[in-house]
Amino acid sequence: MTNDNSEVLNEKTGHVKKLCQNLQSLDRKVRKQGYIEIENFLSDPEITFTNQELRNIFSETHMYILNGLRDKTETVREQAITLSNFLIIEKLPINDFYLTYLFPVIVERIGTVELIEESEEIRLQLVQLLNSIITKYSNTVQLKPFLNDCVIILAESVKDKYPAIKELSCQAIINLATALPQDFHMQAENLIKPVLTCFTHQRYKVRVESIHAIGEIIMHSTYKGLDEVVTPLAEKLFDQIPVVRRAVGQVAARWMLEYRDRYSFFHKTLPLLLTGLNDEVEETRMEAACLWEKVGLQFQQENEKDLKDELDFLFEPPKYYPADIVRPNPGCRALVKRNISKITPAISRELTCWQEDIRVRCSQLLCAIALHAEEGITQNLQDLLLAMYTAARDDDIRVVSNITRASELMGWFVKYETWSELILPIIEDGPHYGHLTVLYGLVKGSPLEYIQHYVGKICKYLAEDPICNSRKEKYQLQMVKCVQVLCTKHTEQTKNDTGYYLFKIVVTLLALRHIGNKEKITISLMDDLKDTLKVESHKDIWSLYTGRLLQNVQKNPETWTPVTDEACIFLTTIELCDEAFGENLELIGDILVKLLDIETDAEMRLKAFYILANVFERKGVTIEKSPEATQFLERMIKEVFVPSLVWKAGAAAEAVRAMAANCLRHALAPPTVGVVEPFASHGLRAIVDKLLPLLVSLTEDPSHRSRQAALQCSALLAERCRKANAWRVEDLTAVYPEFLKRLDDPIEKVRITALGNLPMILADVPEDFRKYNYKAHHEMIIDTLLTHFDDDDTITQDLVYDVLLSTAAINKKMLLDKIARHRPVLRNVEGCDKLAEELSFCCLR
Question: What pTM was computed for the model?
Fold first, then answer.
């Protein structure tokens, strides 16, 4: 070096050293200004500095400059960092000499467990400085000696409370791994635990950067590092932010493509990527699909010999492969098949995890596994199904939907003979609606050609009483879905009994349906069955199977209660079957006689009489077209109604009598037009002899409903007897006094009923009753009616008027005399005159 150059060097160095005197001032403003002036001098465009000059300046002044990083004043430290960054990054050439002095200070300030640097902004600047150094010295030997210091600093800074520092530290770790690719592995695992602390940070950008940092760290770590991070990384699949979930997929894909021992860890990394294939966000699904395809293609290329057979049939998907699904490439399928036995235990375990998010993601993963494994899932099906039964009962509808979808996929690829041997015995032992959900998916997914021969067997299982007879709300809904999907699989190849089994299930669902399912489980289910069996109407279905169903339920009717399954099914059947009721009268009669015995449960009898009343109300459809209608009704009256109308003490007995009398009223009602008279037989007299005394007695019953029904039944019975010429004077004289007594009944409805039905009693009386020796009876009838003819109620007056007109056929002369005699004392003079005029007019005619 010449003297001139030496003088210039000394002059520049001296000037900087002179400026450094300000850095020792007690005034913080002076110290700060000193750093600014040094930077201004070194950056002066009119002054050029050689590398040697800059080195000498740093050597002479570094102790003053770097000491500013420890200054008590934050603004001074900030300016010192700015100058250090200017020197190390912008001015000074690459040389580990400068870093030797800088790193100890940075380690001291932010690389210790104890917090030295209190300012968040300064800590951030120091990390930025470190990151700039790593970037500048990337892939140089000068950085290698400081790897340990970098790791020490970043291990602490990544745990900083300030989010920006965490985020930048993660980026710096990635840069450090890139800068020292041959050496980073020696320190990489020391950063795993510090970086994992960022996984739970509330700021999603920090979580994203920490995931990428872990991905880079593991690329330089041993298998122990990967084992340590797989679980925390899997937890980020449940993150609410899509970017975070995408980051997991990106990292997993990179490991599967580049990790040196990736073949040993595919079973751990596969779920991290496959879960994204069913993500809620389309962008995440698309990215995961692209990455997964790339992984599969690489695996395919690396194992081309082993996959030769599959590659040869690449463009030939299996028969009945779902048309709406793109089949994964052979590499993807082979990857899953080779690792499925290692993945399924974890899936089975996590499907029943207490955390909702884990169950959702795990069910999504199951769908992806089922799609890729195809028939390869067979060996693990038993363990998976056990977990799926439980998961199918999840409160989260997303889990249930995924389980159903996975079941469909399994149904597509696994043969019926395999999955049926696993699920049907389980259902038979003790079913819940989770079993039915999975069964529904399996049946729905199974190709028609393969399952049509077994539909009957499945239906038979489901129609068994322990399986079919359930009152649980969700169970019933799943049973409905099973019935509907089985109907779609029913063909001419299906066994003939299948229709009955489906019918039995449907009727049982209608009979036992939960109150919450009233609008979901309706008679419309028969529409699906009608279309399946290819019959014209519901009537045909009931005609085909009602008898067999009744044979199945007729087990000890005398022991039934309102909640007995067989009782509910029986009553639902007779209420809905219409014409099929008349086709099975003998069997129904046998059951009803036992069910309505006077010793059976009172509440059960009430319910049965109510249903039976509805049936008799429609007897033009249900009974009268049957040739056995007469015998059935006569049997019902003799063996059911007669015993049921006998008086017994107690409120329950009173209610049963009222309901039985009401049911009898419907049974005795006139037949519809064009059908055979069901009581036109020689047996009617025997019925009257037994029934009439009971009805007379019932008119005095404490229940006004019983009294009302007794009056109506008596009138109907009288009408039927007249048609059969079986109505006697003794019958009339036994009945009409009770009707007259009911005109004084305290209940208005009973009084109205008595007046409304009296014309039927007094019409076409036996000829002997008109004779003189029955004059007292005539007088009693007329006097009683005239008394009530003076009632204040106009409705009552009108009804009495009609009854009085009907008595004219019995003894008109007495009636006219009584009207004339009572007219002066009655208030209803107008009614008397009108009645007399009407009777006189009838005489003239």
Answer: 0.82
